[in-house]
Backbone:
């Protein structure tokens, strides 16, 4: 199980994470990314790499 967090101060809602995540962890809510399905995360780290603002952290529980 993994914990996916988005730093809302850094996120600008660009949707790059929404588009790249293979298991649809993210959706945009009020202009920010919400990792609402973090339980689906497969720890590929694509979202961490793609985020231009380094807003995403994924850690193992
Ligand atoms: S890629 Fe980063 S800045 Fe863009 S929506 Fe996702 S968390 Fe926010
Ligand atoms: S690490 Fe991969 S599977 Fe997990 S939220 Fe990021 S893009 Fe999705």
Residues:
């Amino acid at each position: 199980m993994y914990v996916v967090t988005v730093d809302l101060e850094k996120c600008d809602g660009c949707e790059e994470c929404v588009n790249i995540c293979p298991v649809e962890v993210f959706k945009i809510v009020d202009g920010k990314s919400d990792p609402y399905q973090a339980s689906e995360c497969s720890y590929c780290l694509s979202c961490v790499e793609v985020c231009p603002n380094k807003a995403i952290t994924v850690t193992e529980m």
Summary: The chain has one domain: 2-60.
